Structure prediction request, 339 residues.
Amino acid sequence: MNFEDIQAIKKLISEPQKIVVVPHKNPDGDAIGSTLALWHYLKFRGQEATVIVPNDYPKFLKWMAGNDQILNFEKENAQAKSKIEAATLIFTLDFNHLGRIGQMEEPLSKLTVPFVMIDHHQEPSDYAEIMYSDVMMSSTCEMVYNFIEYLGDADAITPEMASCMYTGIMTDTGSFKFSSTTSKTHRVAAHLIEKGAESTKIHHRVFDTNTPGRLHLLGTALNNMVILEDYKTAYITLSQEELDAHKYQKGDTEGFVNYGLTLEGIIFAAIFIENKEEGIIKISFRSVGDFSVNEFARKHFQGGGHNNAAGGKYEISLKETATYFESLLDEYKTELAGF
Ligand code: 5GP
Ligand code: MN
Prediction:
């Protein structure tokens, strides 16, 4: 964050504001962790603040302090709308394009109050007056830590804030293994542990939450995996029928895409998940090394993200999406030969 932006934020929050904090649709650990950490901090600063999520999120993220104060734009629409209309300041976290918040785009884009963006995705759009955008950052949670530090309050971090931030750093770095994890990321995590984040418990609450249905669904996903050795690629498909048969719940497929990358020699992994209700195939891409799944998702699947983790969607059938995906790979044969 540059000096002017820090001064501007200091000025804004030195006066009482009505603040709304927003993560992206289908919020993940970094989205919920960063918005709740910032919410705790803004409350500590004496501000009136509300986190509003565009839609629901997995149960394994619902243990964080402040979770019961979150408004769901789909389920608590009237209340959420009136908070948005009354807002004097908006923070948007872990996304950089208003198209990423679904139905919430409409009321938010009508506002004339200042927007602050804190985000680590590529190619930010320009809706925010104050932009803290850094694609080198491991997570938005690491950026919220920096934000609090810039405002001179790193010592005031509470165990609640620390746990929320630790959660997002842990989930967005694949437990500190992705290449976005820097020595600074570890220093921030260390400080969060000193401030009361219980790392072992957090890991347990987020990752040790399998149901029999989810494990069996993982079995189906792994059985469905197609391995294309020539392209160092592996992909998984899951149909709506397969999800239903295993009593699919939001978040159940989280992390499945990573199994492709655990195969020796595989550097590009994808998962295609049918969503009959939305009429789309939701896609996740992962890579190791230089192959940019962000560019791939942007170019072919209306998506984006980071170099090694991105997502997108497609509107034809599951089978056709997989066939289309396979047909694209030859164009990338040289790039996929690397690493
Ligand atoms: P995931 O595969 O875990 O859903 O998402 C991986 C990364 O890609 C996340 O950083 C996420 O924000 C981003 N991402 C996922 N889906 C989309 C999408 O449809 N559009 C864009 N622009 N980014 C996405
Ligand atoms: Mn993130």
In short: Residues 212-337 form a domain with the Diaminopimelate Epimerase; Chain A, domain 1 fold (CATH 3.10.310.30). The longest strand covers residues 268-275.
